[in-house]
Amino acid sequence: MQHNLDKRASSACSGPRLDSTVRLRIIALATLILALAASTVSAGQPGRQQKLEGPFPSGHKEWRIPASPTGQRLGSLLSVLRSKDAGAAREYVEQVLDQGFREEHGVEGMVDFLMQTATKLDGFTLDGLERQPNGGANAILATPDGLATVLEIGVSEASPHLVEGLMFRPYDRQIEGVPEINTVAEANSYLEELAAAGKYGGVLAVMKDNEIIFTGGYGLAVRAGEGDEELRADPTFLYNVGSITKDFTRTAVLQLVATGKLKLSDTVGQHLERFPEAIADHVTVEQLLAFTSGLGNYHEHPDFAESVKEPTRLERVMDMVRDSELAFEPGTGNLYSNSGFAVLGAMVQSASGMDYYDYMQQNIFDRARMHNSRFLEQADPRAAVGYTRTDDGALTSNRSLIPIKGTPAGSSYSTAGDLLKFQQAMRDDVFGIGKDKVRYGCFAGGGPGVSAVRCASKDGLVIAVLSNVDEGLAGKVAMELFKALQPE
User: Fold this and answer.
1) What is the DSSP string of 77-139?
2) C-alpha–C-alpha distance, residues 25 and 320, integer Å
3) Which terminus in the chain has less CB density within 10 A, N or C?
4) Distance between CA atoms of residues 101 and 93, nearest Å
5) CA 133 to CA 73: how far, in whole Å?
6) What is the pTM of this model?
7) Cα–Cα–Cα angle for 418, 449, 355, rounded to 5 degrees
8) Cα angle vertex 84, ends 79, 88, to 5°?
């Protein structure tokens, strides 16, 4: 572990798991949940997850599932698992699972999976809930052998609120139960403890009043194996920042709006060709920025898995977006959308007359003096390798799951220090978009082997936590520390 601190300033269960495609959906949903939590934090109310409880008739503790769409789908799934009834499982799969999710894995495959899971979890009790800011909950399921599994469920926002993703993962009390963190030193000690146990790899950076007061590196940036030599993490390593890339793209769009090359009212068809009429003539820049366009996620396109085998070509991503349908009429709903930000990147390219990646390098990264930020064209010796868990709980690299070169929606690379610089540049209006466009709160990016969070307050506090494992620790630590360090 390497760090610089300014003077001023339980047991796991090898539970059943779905494959990485399903996990990717869940992680994307988790990113949205953190983004939703950010609005709570920026308003001065901590976005801490809360536990809900009430009495069992038997005298044990009952964890009530919230009466939200996600809660209802979670509750009915727990009933299926308790019953171990194949007929009930089939009914759940056919009536409750999203069509794309169901077709991707097959009805029989999903029924078999649920029955195998029910057997492994035989006799489970609901040992806890983590309520999410969108009203849903993750269930902690304890089995008679004393082990525990976390059940995560992703549900569409639009009625009839079908299940879009499921994941069962081992519950690790050291990771799940992030302690209350009140100081930078406490955050540092906790991350050191996790890194020593091999459960964390990443970096932490903290800025107050325009001065970086702490940087720390923890665990491994690259693990030995798969042809790699072990490298210890330090603050100079580049990490995949996932959907924090959307902040960079948003800034580029607003630059072009400020210079008159784009308008918020412009439609997709005014700048890009070959889109269906429903998208070309009705989806606007403003809707794409606000996630109200009706576009979904190109990650779910059948060609996506093949596309990650080579550096990203923006036009190939556009082809996947063109071959999709809107989830709702533009402007009438809200849906987190990677496709929407990919389209915004293509509009940046069209309106500026520059290649999207060149524009970002010159007008975002270079202008903010983010000298360690870029879209990778190939493997970089100073880039951390992401690691995600396989079905047996082992960590493996995410190289087959994440594109070599990111898109306007995600997977650019940066350092924790550069994320602090980005927030500083936004506040000082280095990008020329206006100080009223600065966003405060916590913003996250995630994916297999990717966990990144940037938190910023109006009083000059900025925190960046980056990790190359997908346990969700970056967000938990960042938000705990952010809440603690803000003035009363």
Assistant:
1) HHHHHHHT-HHHHHHHHHHHB-HHHHHHH-HHHHHHHHHHHHHHTTT-EEEEEEE-TTS-EEE
2) 17
3) C
4) 10
5) 16
6) 0.70
7) 55
8) 65
Identify how many contiguous H helices and E strands the chain contains and give both numbers: 16, 18
Q: Which two tokens stand for residue 236?
A: 């100079």
- Please state, in angstroms and rounded to a whole number, the distance separating the CA atoms of residues 387 and 399: 9
Return d(Cα 463, Cα 461) in angstroms, integer.
Answer: 7
| CA dist., res. 69 & res. 78, Å (int) | 14
180-488: CATH, from 1.10.150.120, 3.30.230.10, 3.90.1150.10, 3.40.710.10? 3.40.710.10
Which residue ranges make up each domain of the chain?
20-175, 180-488
By C-alpha distance, which of 175, 251, 223, 212 is closest to 464? 212
Separation between Cα atoms, residue 233 and residue 448, nearest integer Å: 19
Nearby residues of 313 by Cβ (< 8 Å), 6 or more positions away: none
Location of structure tokens 């079905």 = 391
Predicted pLDDT at 415:
97
pLDDT at 109: 82
- Say which amino acid occupies 454: R
Which residue shows structure tokens 């923890």? 218
What pLDDT, on a 0 to 100 scale, did the predictor assign at position 297?
87
pLDDT, averaged per 10 consecutive residues of the chain (488 residues), comes to 32 30 36 33 28 29 67 89 93 88 78 89 81 60 78 80 78 61 90 86 93 94 90 94 94 97 97 95 95 88 75 84 90 87 96 97 97 89 88 78 85 96 96 92 85 91 91 75 80
Q: Going by DSSP bridges, is the β-strand pair 231-232/220-222 parallel, antiparallel, or unpaired?
A: antiparallel
Angle (nearest 5°) at CA 34 between 95 and 470:
85
Locate 256 and state its tokens.
């072009």
Pick the CATH number of 20-175 from 3.90.830.10, 3.10.450.280, 3.90.226.10, 2.40.30.110: 3.10.450.280
